[in-house]
Design a protein that fits this description.
The protein has 528 residues and is α+β, with helices and mostly antiparallel strands. It contains 13 helices and 31 strands.
Length: 528
């Protein structure tokens, strides 16, 4: 193996996904602690204190206690170079989560043991399953009263349509939490609650050890024996191929806050999760360890730092090695260039990167030339990675600026936020940019949009909700689209590539339009 291959093989790039409050930030923080990337618990988060999570940088996130945008952290652990992609914990931002998952090779799903798969996050988790990437489940907060582990596993299987493979099994929960039984290594990791101390001691005991009762008690031991018998009877061995195909999720129990079961989880996870996986270009896979560099844009973010007023584009490197001064080719822009100020995030710091490898995520300064899904590669190559689908918006509003003097900022703000993929904007034909129709997948996106317009672009907007729920691209029209026969509550709009679209209030209206206009073809999805 040459140096390039070695560097790429030791990389692990994954996203963490959870319902708000399930413990994603706490778990991430413990990972960083083990990796020596931070020295003090609480330096990543402390929502209710004056500190706030490094990834929760946006005002609105701080106010509402939700994570709206995703960010990236890199650290080293046991010879691995780990890239963690944080994802928004609310279903209204599931499209952002999907884009982030495009950049990840695996996902860790954190579930609160007392709540199981929560209503609000079902959609988010399903998005994860849709991507067919390996999903690892960490069932957290076992130091609190939790649901029956069999029920939790059943729920994950039934609701998400994925098989599970318990790697360890909890012994009791809450005050009675005694540890976990490692179903692979066949030993018990005993938990010693430590008067509310955050770090606990762990002891390894064999299942047949006579002293076991003194660790977990006779009753727990009997219950564990029964559980293990059931699990052994039901479970086949671990099918790593099924894990990699996203059909089987290894499940771990633990408690991130008390630091219990986190390190064994991280170690086993790193063994099981794949190194950078190939991405597709025109149906063919691009080998991550090939010499020539390639990457794609999965995220764009304006004003990440208000003081900088800049716009960052995030690239997932798919193959080869990136070097700071190297010349690259931006395929969609048909332009050779050098990437400006390539950087990586580490906690609150941004660091200039001199080199990075397949699997890594880098942010580059973007003067407004990149779009989500764009490919960047070595100048001697030209190919395009498969695009990132856009979710169809389900909520619409007409938006205009309150102050007519603010037209320029209004246009800039709406355009930039739309380029990030945080909203979609449409226009009624021939109305100009004085007002736009904004479409979003989840209503909270409206709030974020309004907040950002005010805080980042200094524009107060007037937002008037519209009753539409369905959007269709006009793929083919038998007549000039303005001549189409449409019900009075159907609206014709254009996107900013001048494509025509129709907004409908009901499915009935869609059928009506198709019946009245023979030859009309409507498409649910559209890729540029
Ligand atoms: P999130 O990023 O998924 O939203 O969750 P986060 O880590 O912020 O955790 C949410 C709350 O749950 C925090 O409490 C955190 O301390 C707590 N928590 C996380 N893991 C565990 C665990 O294993 N056991 C127990 N008992 N609690 C856990 P908070 O009161 O909201 O915040 P803070 O005051 O601790 O900062």
């Amino acid at each position: 193996m040459n140096q390039l291959q070695k560097e790429i093989k030791r990389r692990r790039t994954f996203a963490i996904i959870s319902h708000p409050d399930a413990g994603k930030t706490t778990l991430t923080e413990k990972f960083l602690l083990y990796g020596g990337a931070i020295a003090l618990a609480g330096s990543v988060k402390g929502k209710k204190s004056s500190r706030h999570a490094v990834s929760d940088w946006m005002e609105i996130e701080k106010q509402r206690g939700i994570s709206v945008t995703s960010s990236v952290l890199q650290f080293e652990y046991n010879g691995f170079c780990i890239n963690i992609l944080d994802t928004p914990g609310h279903q209204d931002f599931s499209e952002d989560t999907y884009r982030t998952l495009m950049a990840a090779d695996a996902a860790v799903m954190v579930i609160d043991g007392s709540k199981g798969v929560e209503n609000q996050t079902r959609k988010l988790f399903k998005v994860c399953v849709m991507r067919h990437i390996p999903i690892f489940t960490f069932i957290n907060k076992m130091d609190r009263e939790a649901r029956n582990p069999f029920d939790l596993i059943d729920q994950i299987e039934n609701e998400l349509g994925i098989e599970t493979y318990p790697v360890n099994w909890p012994i009791g929960c809450g005050k009675e939490f005694r540890g976990v039984f490692d179903l692979e290594k066949r030993h018990i990791l005993s938990f010693e609650a430590n008067n509310g101390q955050h770090e606990v001691a762990a002891t390894e005991v064999d299942l047949n050890d006579a002293s076991l009762d003194s660790y977990i008690g006779a009753e727990n031991r009997a219950a564990l024996m029964d559980d293990v018998e059931l699990l052994d009877g039901a479970g086949a061995g671990l099918d790593v191929e099924a894990v990699h195909a996203g059909r089987l999720s290894p499940v771990f129990f633990g408690s991130a806050l008390t630091n219990f079961g986190v390190e064994p989880f991280l170690e086993r996870f790193l063994e099981l999760t794949p190194p950078p996986t190939p991405r597709l270009s025109n149906g063919e896979s691009v080998d991550p360890t090939q010499d020539s560099f390639s990457a794609f844009v999965f995220k764009i973010q304006a004003n990440m730092n208000k003081a900088h007023r800049d716009r960052l584009t995030f690239l997932r490197i798919c193959s080869g090695k990136f070097e700071r001064e190297m010349e690259v080719y931006h395929v969609q822009g048909n332009k050779k260039m050098r990437l400006s100020q390539p950087q990586q995030m580490m906690a609150q710091e941004r660091e200039i990167v001199n080199e990075a490898y397949a699997g890594d995520i880098i942010g580059v300064f973007d003067p407004g030339i990149f779009a989500i899904g764009d490919t960047i590669c070595s100048p001697n190559q030209s190919f395009a990675f498969e695009g990132i689908p856009t979710f169809a918006p389900e909520h619409f509003a007409r938006v205009r600026h309150k102050d007519t003097m603010k037209r320029k900022q209004f246009v800039k703000g709406t355009t930039q936020i739309a380029q990030e993929g945080a909203i979609q904007i449409f226009q009624e034909p021939y109305t100009g940019m004085e007002e736009v129709i904004v479409g979003v997948v989840g209503v909270l996106q409206f709030e974020v949009f309004e907040h950002r317009m005010k805080n980042e672009y200094n524009v107060d907007i007037i937002r008037e909700p519209l009753p539409y729920q369905y959007i269709r691209w006009v793929a083919k029209s038998p007549v000039d689209v303005k001549e189409l026969q449409l019900s009075s509550d159907t609206k014709l709009v254009q996107d900013f590539h001048d494509n025509y679209l129709l907004l409908f209030t009901s499915e009935w209206n869609i059928r009506w339009a198709l019946e009245k206009n023979e030859g009309l073809e409507l498409a649910e999805f559209h890729k540029e």
